[in-house]
Design brief:
By secondary structure, the protein is an alpha/beta fold. It is built from 14 helices and eight strands. The chain is globular.
Length: 271
């Protein structure tokens, strides 16, 4: 059964796109059929997956406007997964949706556009991963409406805790008004440096408040992980032995085990 996971955080610079690209590649390496949807007009996930955003003819923009299906727009990414690319055109999608006649009705329909597009390809994939913009706008609402769950990457720093409470409130509103089955997939600690005492303190607070909603896997600060986007590759393809690649393979295994679809060999390989 297909599972759609939105990678979201209203705070930028927390490893959201890095997680979207590398989790997609790691799930594919575990033998799962994966499609990554880039819903950020910056198109960083698109470029990080080895696709030139400026040359993409059909994108998530044309899917949202109903001019193309996901099957029409998908391209092969570096890393063994499919990608629905994004570029600057996407920034205009929200304006076009908002300016439609019968705005309120159209807006409600527009919020569910991505969900309908994903439903049409449900037989094609095991996982849909959505990389959200670092803002709460119509594009993010689309993603959260379409998602079964939200994976929240965050740095272990003071301001991240404040941003997290805002995001949890947003998700509660989504559950009340637009997507009652939406759940938190888990919190992922990213760019973690155990040498910094504040990181350890924040990590302990997260464990105390979120318990089993906190992934056991921790993504470390890692040079190869930081370099991978400039090569247009997931870190798994740049340096499989790096700590960053190993961490995302471990995250994928943890996710699969949680969904009770991991085979024993998959769980063993990732350790």
């Amino acid at each position: 059964m297909i599972r759609t996971i939105a990678i979201a955080n209203q705070k930028g610079g927390v490893g959201k796109t890095t997680t979207a690209v590398n989790l997609s590649a790691s799930l594919a390496a575990h033998g799962r059929r994966v499609c990554l949807i880039d819903v950020d007009p910056q198109g960083n996930a698109t470029m990080g997956a080895g696709v030139n955003k400026n040359e993409a003819e059909k994108t998530v923009y044309t899917v949202l406007l109903g001019e193309a299906s996901m099957l029409d727009a998908r391209v092969k990414a570096q890393g063994g997964f499919d990608l629905i690319p994004a570029n600057r055109e996407l920034a205009g999608a929200e304006i076009e949706m908002v300016s439609m006649p019968d705005r309120e009705t159209k807006l409600k329909d527009a919020i569910h556009t991505l969900k309908a597009a994903i439903a049409a390809v449900a037989e094609e994939y095991d996982y849909i991963i959505i990389d959200c913009p670092p803002t709460l706008n119509l594009l993010t609402l689309n993603a959260l409406c379409a998602a079964d769950s939200v994976l929240i990457p965050m740095q272990c720093e003071y301001y991240a805790l404040e941003g997290l409470s805002d995001l949890v409130q947003t998700l509660r509103k989504m559950q009340q008004h637009l997507n009652p089955t939406l759940e938190i997939e888990g919190l992922l600690r990213t760019m973690y440096d155990p040498r910094i005492s504040l990181s350890q303190q924040v990590a302990a607070q997260l464990e105390q408040h979120f318990g089993d909603k906190l992934f056991k896997t921790v993504i470390p600060r890692n040079v190869r992980l930081a370099e991978a986007p400039s090569h247009g590759l997931p870190v798994l393809m740049l340096d499989r032995a790096s700590k960053g690649a190993q961490a995302y393979m471990q995250l994928a295994a943890e996710l699969l085990a949680k969904h009770e679809i991991a085979s024993p060999s998959v769980a063993t390989d990732a350790q």
